[in-house]
Amino acid sequence: MRGPRTVGRSSTARYATSALRAAQHTFTLVTAEPTNLHLHGEDFGDDLPAGPIALPRLRDLLLAPSTSLATRDAVWRELIERARADRSTWVVMAVGMAMPGLRRCLRELKLAFRGEATDLESEIARGFLEALNTIDVTEWALCARLVRAAHKAGVRLVYAEAAFDGARWEEFDSRAPVPPWGHPDFLLLGAVDAGVISDEEAKLIATTRLEDVPVDQIAALFGERTNTVVQRRRRAENRLAEALAEGKVTALEPIPSLALLAPPQQRHPTPVSAAV
User: Measuring CA to CA, which of 100, 129, 244, 267 is 20 to 30 A from 106?
Assistant: First the structure.
């Protein structure tokens, strides 16, 4: 006769097979009330309600369009510093807080990945954790930068797996390119290399299109009108689309890193806190 089902053991075994699922499972368990894992909203400006905020609710608030980039960065600066000091619980909390972005990376990359999904999750998590320990906390769009580092780690694994599959072909034949032959990051690098768009235009597209950083927040950082930045991006995207249609752009391996957009050195942008 089969013994009673142990829910805890079943859940632990299921989540232990996946890096991101394990992190999300732990995040859910340790942030459930009652818990002392919370941050105080008044410490990060006026966008957040005062008083202690549980991390799952704080994550939702940071995703809200009404929350400014300055507030998001202030919260993430605190999370990063706690994770570096603690190297335990708050590391998992940081992964849990970034989980929406990490899941988006996984969904995208799984479409082209030919290996085990658990390997891809582990690589995404590794890329995130490495960035968590090395990112410059004085930068902006911190969460987007961390997720982007995780995404790049996953992309490298996808390409390595695809190259390994290609190496096992036994005869020469005309074949379709091995996915992901048109990955956005690499296409943008190829467009810069071909002189179709500038490096700054590529970073603008990457930051606002691939990482979903709102254009108005980029404009506020540069002290420009939102429409000006939108038009600049549109002109670059039109040139890129035309070049792609004519076959003038091919994906380029990311030897130079396509970092998130940074303010030009010759400008003196209005501080984000004052512009939003």
Answer: 244
Cα–Cα distances in Å, from 28 out to 72, 93, 129? Answer: 21, 10, 19
The C-alpha atoms of residue 167 and residue 175 are separated, in whole angstroms, by 13
Would you give the end-to-end CA distance of the chain in angstroms? 65
The Cα angle at residue 170 between residues 168 and 174, in degrees rounded to 5: 100
Residue in the block written with tokens 């005309």: 174
Tell me if residue 253 falls in helix, strand or coil.
coil
Q: What is the dihedral of CA 173, 174, 180, 183, to 10 degrees?
A: 140
DSSP letter assigned to residue 1: -
Q: Spell out the residues 6+ positions from residue 185 whose beta carbon is closer than 8 angstroms to its own.
A: 152, 155, 206, 210, 254, 258
pLDDT digits (tens, 9 = 90+) for 58-110: 999 999 988 988 999 999 999 999 999 998 899 999 999 999 999 999 998 88
Q: With contact defined as beta carbons under 8 Å apart, do 120 and 157 qualify?
A: yes
Q: What torsion do the CA atoms of 234, 239, 244, 246 make, to the nearest 10 degrees?
A: 140
- How many Å apart are CA 81 and CA 260, to the nearest integer? 21
Rounded Cα distance, 189 and 212, in Å: 19
CB 230 within 8 A of CB 215: yes
Whole-prediction pTM: 0.65
